[in-house]
Amino acid sequence: MLTVPETAALLRTFDNILILTHVRPDGDTVGCAAALCASLRALGKTAYLLPNPELTDTTAPYFVPYAAPADFAPEKVVSTDIATLGLLPENARPYADRIDLAIDHHPSFEHFGRANIVRPEAAACGELVYDILAALGPITPELALPLYVAVSTDTGCFAYANTTAHTHAVAAALMRTGIDYQTVNKVFFRTKTRKRMQLEGAMLSACEFYDNDRVAVLSVPMSLMERFQATESDAEDLSALGGQIQGVDCAVTMRELRPNVWKLSLRTGTRVNATNVCRLLGGGGHAAAAGATLEAPWPEAKRRILEAIAQNAPDFTQ
Questions:
Q1: Nearest to residue 257, comparing CAs of 310, 219, 228, 210?
Q2: Average pLDDT, whole number, for the chain?
Q3: Cα dihedral angle (55, 22, 128, 272), rounded to 10 degrees?
Q4: Distance between CA atoms of 40 and 30, rounded to whole angstroms?
């Protein structure tokens, strides 16, 4: 396992670099990749991000300036905020066995890179990437803005329990560079489309409660997306909704990606370890935020999720 200085030294030896992000890219993977790409270019390297077909309207502006041309042939491949090879987009899978450096912060990280660096205690991968880039050179506003996106989005604008003193220290250092963090906060945390609000209303009205109302199960079937003609941007980070319900310490959000293929997002308090639950279902993540993909009709998928939660919560009540 590499240290931050060793990682910086390794990156200095790289050139013609392709950077990978995960499926359904969030602000952390995009922000880390964009900042890393900008830093490498500042060192005189040729670096690009592999295009990700699932970018949303909020993340695309940070990604697009660094997108690789179709004919780019990399010599080195780096992944950011990817815990397992199963999270690679379809167009990234040809690179699965040639990832030269994997940078991550998930406890479930699978060490698939030829070289790896992981910081499980970090609230966001952006915290680790910040330290790596600081070892490569000055943190300019060009680097600081996507890093702020990374750190703020993975902490719910610094409201989630994973936020630490170091998280705030990194954010403060990024803000001191003069970036427009107010716009980031407005776009990511205080703006919703009408379709998004309709989705949330429908999800809450159909929400099911279990375990003495401590477990909330919210679903987003394909039919719901179609009813409101909602896009991926409208559905971004819907998993944060359930945890806002008073008394709920285990929020399950199920998004139907294809018929009978459900993306599970689990957000928990200290009573239930989200990683342990999702590991039983073939996924992983953090103690308070994890995910998995299930292929089953909705009743079967829900049953499997509740059984996995019950196995990890000794006081679970049917």
A1: 219
A2: 96
A3: 110
A4: 15
Q: Is the pLDDT confidence value at 216 over 80?
A: yes
E strand or H helix that includes residue 48: strand 47-49
How many alpha carbons fall within 13 Å on the CB side of residue 20?
A: 31
Report field, pTM of the whole predicted structure over 0.85: yes
Count of CA atoms in the C-beta half-sphere (13 A) of 303: 6
Token pair recorded at residue 85: 């090879």
Q: What secondary structure letter does DSSP report for 318?
A: -
Rg, the chain, Cα only: 19
Which tokens hold the place of 62? 């940070």
Task: List 266's β-bridge partners, or say none.
Answer: 252, 290
Q: What is the 3-state secondary structure (H, E, C) of 80-123?
A: ECCCCHHHCCHHHHHHHHHCCEEEECCCCCCCCCCCEEECCCCC
Residue 100 has pLDDT above 90, yes or no: yes
Average confidence (pLDDT) over 177-200:
97
Task: Read off the DSSP letter of residue 51.
Answer: P
The answer to whether the CB of 118 falls within 8 A of the CB of 107 is no
Closest CA to 195 of 26, 62, 56: 56
Among candidates 308, 285, 306, which has minimal Cα distance to 123? Answer: 285
Nearest residue to 128 (alpha-carbon basis) of 92, 78, 89: 78
Three-state DSSP class for 294? Answer: strand
Determine the average pLDDT of the residues in 20-24: 96
Taking the CA atoms of 235, 112, 16 and 40 in sequence, report the sign of the dihedral they define: positive
CA distance 115 to 292: 25
Q: CB-hemisphere CA count at 13 Å for 115?
A: 15
Burial code (b: 16+ CB inside 10 Å, e: under 16) for 245-278 equals: eeebbbbbbbbbeeeeebbbbbbbeeebbbbbbb
Which pLDDT does position 270 carry in this prediction? 92
